[in-house]
Write a structure and sequence with these properties.
Blueprint: H1 2-29, H2 35-38, H3 48-62, E1 67-69, H4 73-77, E2 88-91, H5 96-101, H6 108-115, E3 120-121, E4 128-136, E5 142-152, E6 155-160, H7 167-175
Antiparallel strand pairs: 1-5, 2-4, 3-4, 4-5, 5-6
Length: 200
């Protein structure tokens, strides 16, 4: 009996150490991140003026352009322990070239032709179209962008959003940098060979 209890005691200790090490590794890599669940949500004022100020502040922050955040060196090092994460793209991608085509005074149909169907149309804000974009790479890189178009009398009054990537930058971000293809270099003739050119 004594041998059995000593073996079980050692097994329990090792199992606890292995479980603690696994939890620490998962927390450091971000798999078991519960940082946002610790703090309670801030109280929200329901006064109309406070709601309008919060909406304007949030829209100004979101419309500042595309924001990209990367992972830390520790997370890159511990990425080996995390599970596979695919790239996730949501929303409408709007490039600098597309935004350059948008002009004040265009109709809703012209905006829809240039930027596509808006992802968010609100019944309570019918004069505003939102084009949010979200790209989470498997390596932890996160890109967010938002373009908002405001209408007055069914024509564009103004639009927010800037500092957007070009289409080439976006493709390079998804697929990696473009590979340079070497041009065909004319072959040198070897000694003892002859070539004939016929000009017509």
């Amino acid at each position: 009996m004594r041998v059995k209890s000593v073996v079980l005691h050692r097994f329990h200790r090792r199992a606890l150490l292995a479980a603690a090490a696994m939890c620490a590794a998962l927390t450091l890599t971000g798999c078991a991140a519960w940082r946002n669940q610790i703090r309670p949500a801030a109280p929200v004022s329901t006064a109309p003026a406070a709601l309008a100020a919060d909406a304007d502040k949030a829209a100004a922050a979101a419309n500042a352009g595309a924001q990209t955040s990367t992972v830390s060196q520790l997370q890159k090092f511990l990425w080996v322990l995390s599970p596979y994460r695919p790239d996730i793209q949501q929303g409408n991608f709007i490039s600098q070239e597309m935004l350059a085509q948008l002009k004040v005074g265009q109709t809703r149909e012209q905006v829809k032709f240039i930027l596509g169907t808006p992802l968010l149309t609100d019944v309570f804000h019918a004069q505003r179209w939102d084009y949010p974009f979200y790209l989470a790479r498997g390596n932890g890189e996160l890109t967010q962008a938002r373009v908002t178009v405001y209408f007055k009398d069914d024509t564009v009054e103004k639009f927010d959003g800037g500092n957007l990537p070009t289409e080439k930058e976006y493709i390079a971000r998804i697929a990696g940098p473009a590979k340079v293809v070497a041009k065909d270099v004319p072959k040198r003739e070897e000694a003892g060979s002859a070539s004939i050119q016929i000009n017509k």
